Amino acid sequence: MINKIITFFWTYYYKIFWFKTLNIHPNARIRGFIRINLFKKYGNLLINLKDRTSIFPNVIIQGSGTLEIGENSFIGSFTVLGINERITIGKNVMISQTVSIRDTDHVFKNCNTPMIQQGITTSPITIEEDVWIGYGAVITKGVNIGKGAIVGANAVVTKDVPPYAIVGGVPAKIIKYRI
């Protein structure tokens, strides 16, 4: 009972105080404190949570792009979502704890200029429906993870993952297919 009250409180807190940033479906739930960092320099952060979406405590959402999370998906605690362009998460997606998903990278080509002054590059990330992303995985910019895929714990995904593939390792490689 106490968990339902806490979830109710946090969900409505974010609906009221972050109404310009968050579009929360009536059945979506924020289950504890999440941190939202806006990077106004690049634009406005927009977050769209669909029906039965759950975000667990201590998730960090930062940037100035658009985040869309599909129906019946959840994001585990201590996950970081860095969005300066777009991250799209499909229906029925499970994202475990401490996952890092970032559509941005720093520019570092000019050795005579500090990297912090060289700007960023972005490329959207798409995670299709029925995907499971394991504990501690890292998803880098421009990656598309196909329907029904599984990303193993601590994998670093730098290239597209085909539908129903199981990937793992650093960098992530196909281990086998589910079908």
Textual characterization of the structure:
The protein has an eight-stranded mixed β-sheet. A six-stranded parallel β-sheet has the order 1-4-7-10-15-18, with helices on one face. The chain has a six-stranded parallel β-sheet with strand order 3-6-9-12-17-20, with no helix packed on it. The longest helix has 16 residues, at 2-17. It is mostly beta strands and 179 residues long. The protein contains one helix and 22 strands. Helices cover 9% and strands 37% of the residues. This is Acyltransferase. One of its GO terms (molecular function) is acyltransferase activity. It holds the Pfam family Hexapep_2. Keywords: Acyltransferase, Repeat, Transferase.
Keywords:
179 residues, eight-stranded mixed β-sheet, mainly beta, 1 helix, six-stranded parallel β-sheet
Low-confidence stretches: none
The count of strands amounts to 22
Global structural class: mainly beta
Strand order of the largest sheet: 2-5-8-11-16-19-21-22
Q: How many DSSP H or I helices?
A: 1
Q: N- to C-terminal separation? A: 41 Å
Q: Mind describing the biggest β-sheet?
A: 8 strands, mixed
Mean pLDDT value? 87
Give the ordered list of helices and strands.
HEEEEEEEEEEEEEEEEEEEEEE
What's the helical proportion of residues?
under 10%
Rg, Cα atoms, Å: 17 Å
Fraction in beta strands: 35-45%
The shape, in one word, is: globular
Protein name: Acyltransferase
InterPro entries: Hexapep, Hexapep_transf_CS, Hexapeptide_acetyltransf, Trimer_LpxA-like_sf
GO molecular function: acyltransferase activity
Keywords: Acyltransferase, Repeat, Transferase
